[in-house]
Amino acid sequence: MISRRRLLQTSAVSAAALAARGVPAWGANAPGVTATEIKIGQTMPYSGNASAYGTIGKVELAYFKMINEQGGINGRKINLISLDDGYSPPKTVELVRRLVEQEEVAFLFQTLGTPSNSAIHQYCNDEKVPQLFVATGAAKWNDPKGHPWTMGWQPNYQTEAKIYAKYILANKPNAKISILYQNDDFGKDYLIGLKAGLGDKFERMVVKEASYESTDPTVDSQIVTLQGSGADTHVTAAIPKYAAQAIRKIYDIGWKPTHFLTNVAISVGSVLQPAGLEKSQGIISADYRKDTSDPRWKDDAGYKQWLAFMQKNLPDADLKDNNYPYGMMCAMTMAQVLKQCGDDLSRENVMKQAASLKNLEMPMLLPGITINTSATDFAPIKQMQLQRFDGKSWELFGDVIGG
Amino acid sequence: MTSVSETAAAPGTRQIAGLSLTRWRAIGIVGFLAAACVLPFFLSNYHNLQLATVVIYAIALMGLNILTGFNGQISLGHGAFYAIGAYTTAILTTKFGVPYWATVPVAGVICLVVGFLIGLPALRLEGLYLALATFALALATPQLLKFKPLDPWTGGVQGVLLRRSASNPPWGLPLTRDQWLYFLCLAIAIPMFWAARNLIRGRTGRAIVAIRDHPVAAETMGVNIAIYKSAAFGVSALYTGVAGALGAVVVGFVAPESFPLFLSLSLLVGIVVGGLASISGAIFGAIFIEFVPNLSDELARSIPAIAQWLLGFTPSVAEQAATAAQWTIYGLVLIAFMYAMPTGVAGFIRLLWSRLARGFGEGG
Predict the structure, then answer these.
(1) Where would I find the H helices in A98-184?
(2) What is the DSSP-derived secondary structure letter of residue A132?
(3) Which of A50, A224, A252, B108 can pair with A87 through a Cys bridge, CB separation 3.0 to 4.6 Å?
(4) For chain A, how many structural domains are there in total?
(5) In a domain, A7, yes or no
(6) How far is CA A285 from CA A185, A235, A388, B175, in A?
(7) Which of B215, B229, B284, B265 is nearest to B62 (CA)?
(8) Beta-carbon neighbour count of residue A361 at 10 Å?
(9) Which domain holds residue A33?
(10) Shared-domain flag, residues A144 and A161
(11) Does ipTM top 0.90?
């Protein structure tokens, strides 16, 4: 039974909401929500330069299909409309407008790509359409004040760089640091993160920065320059191809810095093996996911859960592709938000519940890492764990660290 | 701008239902314009956005058609001019506070100059060699936009975000933002198409076409090939640049990824499908490149259901087939168009009309 006090509170809130917005938004379900269905939308690069990420959309579709077969969430089935934008921002704008205005989806989920999401950032916030768990590592999605309708998911590059900075300050307070970074938002986010992490010590500790273009043939000359600066600690913020070159060159010229390597380039198969496993020994990086190709997780309950899901729903998939656990966990997070929403599927409540995730555990997150959000914190995953390459595989060490 | 070609033979001699072809064309133009003005009020905002995009593509295609269709110079790099136009608008509005409507002519002029300058060295390149050189231009564009010293203006990989509210309808017009932008694009497109038609029909146009058909003969007639070819390049770039500027306003965001090689190729597809060396062809081409990829996508989406029903595919395989199928279907539609209408949609309609006129002529 609803108490009188509660009733009064509710009506006061409704009145306030009405007055503030001029529309009866509170309590009214979002478009796309019926008694049996929640329609949501996303854009994915199924074609074009970034089509390798298309697997994320596929695994999310498969996950919601499984949920629906089990009866949906609070009696409603999830209908995810996943459209191909070819990683082209103008196309993303058009498709998102189609999703919101024609298909009338309740909200957007996991639209992929930094430029694509930048293109719809303002639109979603103007129109008050939740843009949830965007699939990009940029730091700008965590802006609850300026953009209260947008939320990221994975730890961003700045967070990761801050974790390295923390480790350096604790273990090598007198380090002389050099940085190699890709000259774009990805590389620059590491610079920003290191700056934030090292604080006023940045100027003193960082002795040399060098950048490269993603079109350069090699980074050999940059490595030689960085060695010449006398640095004893080195951070590589490079995509796989250049990371492998950097590792090899550093070893070949006899430079032995404490080497931090971006999480983007930690694949044993595509980076460390081409660079040379013995040359990669001792490299430090950070991760938040269980690496699917790491035999250590063979008997892990979370890994087994993921594997069972994959074998049942995507039997042809390449299990080494870490985008599969990524996509599954994003879909699980979404499902949790909708579960928390209960019967109030207004856009306001979806955002509110997305910002009320507490210690949410995921099967393929490293032990100890959980998802947490609040009204002032729109970065669901902020923790990572350091790991060192022992010549064969990555060995986790230390505690889970928050950025 | 009508379904009737501008080069229909001997106006006045052939009649359909008692009216000359010229008269029919006039009726067609008026009808088309009336439809273009009334339609937005019956459509949703999303469809108005699509209509605006069609008008923008039509301007760009008109530009490319002047160069490739009428002058015979193949360009695979017009996406570069589109990008220059778009960035001009984005930078002027966000960094210098220029109102967006004022940036459109500036974008046109900048592209005119750049196009003319690129046209100069291109004079030495004929046919496929020019196609390759402009192809390189299209490839280089996204890279150049990321060029570090230009970062303060171009925003590098982050691109530039235009304020959406800046392009709201002015003077308290009872229009939505999308309707307003559509009418703005239309208001710019109509005089530009009119100018293109006059250009092509006049002395300059004859010189440009003569260069395409027989350069030696044209030169003998006293046509300055160098000037006309460069000018064609410049004017063509101007049109495409204006389209790019309007595109930036409508989309509200520019980034290097917005102007991939595929854009340049789409423009070429547009003029070939629409009809080379035809003014109305630009409109048909624009409709094609805006709607056919979307239709292919929707068709591809319905494949899993059909496949499951017909062939008993497992859903996961069928779903994977669907994501691959979109561009396969696009390709098939393209082939079908080229097979059925080798001279483009405009050429097909021209053929249809002349058959019709002949039929009526014989009957009456």
Answers:
(1) 114-127, 157-171
(2) E
(3) A50
(4) 2
(5) no
(6) 20, 10, 6, 54
(7) B284
(8) 12
(9) 27-155+302-372
(10) no
(11) no
Does the CB of A155 have a partner CB in chain B at under 8 Å?
Answer: no
| Contact between B323 and A119 using a beta-carbon 8 Å cutoff | no
Which 3 state secondary structure label does DSSP give A364?
coil
Q: Which has the higher per-residue pLDDT, B193 or B325?
A: B193
Q: Is the pLDDT of residue B4 over 70?
A: no
For residues A223 and A350, membership in a common domain is answered with no
CATH of the domain at A180: 3.40.50.2300
> pLDDT digits over A328-352, tens only?
999 999 999 999 999 899 999 999 9
Q: Classify residue A17: in a domain, yes or no.
A: no
CA angle A300, A304, A310 (to 5 degrees): 150
Burial class (CB in 10 A: 0-12, 13-18, 19+), B331: exposed
Label the pairing between strands B19-20 and A233-237.
Answer: unpaired
Closest CA to A326 of A87, A64, A59: A59
Contacts of B29-38 with CB under 8 Å at 24 or more apart are B29/B1, B29/B2, B32/B1, B32/B2, B32/B3, B33/B1, B33/B190, B36/B186, B37/B183, B37/B186
pLDDT 10s digits, B249-267:
998 888 888 888 889 999 9
d(CA B26, CA B348): 19
Same domain, A143 and A166: no
Q: pLDDT band for position A27 (50/70/90)?
A: low
Would you list the DSSP string of A317-351?
Answer: S-TT-THHHHHHHHHHHHHHHHHHHTT---HHHHH
Residue found under tokens 């003077």: B171
Best residue in A43, A88, A310 to probe B by mutation, most B CBs within 10 Å?
A88
Nearest beta carbon to residue B257 from set A89, A126, A183: A89
Q: How far off is chain B from A247, nearest CA to CA, in Å? A: 25
pTM of the model: 0.79
Tell whether A368 and A308 lie within a shared domain: yes
Phi, then psi, of A82 in degrees rounded to 5: -110, 110
Q: Is A203 found in the same domain as A108?
A: no
What's the token pair of residue B1? 């701008």
Three-state SS for A196? helix
Buried/exposed code over B225-258 (b: 16+ C-beta within 10 A; e: otherwise): eeebbbbbbbbbbbbbbbbbbbbbbbbbbbbbbb
The more confident residue out of A86 and B164 is: A86
**Tokens in use for B214?**
């027989």
> CATH 1.10.3470: does it fit domain B15-363?
yes
Q: Render pLDDT for A108-137 as a digit per residue (tens, 0 to 9).
A: 999 998 888 988 998 999 989 999 999 988
Task: Give chain B positions within 8 Å (CB) of A93.
Answer: 251-253
Q: Are residues A33 and A151 in the same domain?
A: yes
Q: How many CB atoms lie within 10 A of CB A15?
A: 11
Kindly give the interhelix angle for B279-311 and B45-64, rounded to the nearest 10 degrees.
130
In Å, how far is A184's CA from the nearest CA of chain B? 6
Q: Please state, as a whole number, how many other Cβ atoms lie within 10 Å of the Cβ of residue B94.
A: 18
Hey, which residues 61-80 in chain A have their CB within 8 Å of chain B? Answer: 61-62, 65
Same structural domain for residues A143 and A260? Answer: no
Ranges of each domain in chain B: 15-363
User: Is the Cα dihedral B254, B258, B261, B263 positive or negative?
Assistant: negative
Whether A278 and A209 map to the same domain: the answer is yes
CA distance B125 to B21: 40
- Whether residue A220 is contained in a domain is answered as yes
Report which residue type is found at A60. Answer: E
Nearest-neighbour CA in chain B from A122: distance (Å): 8
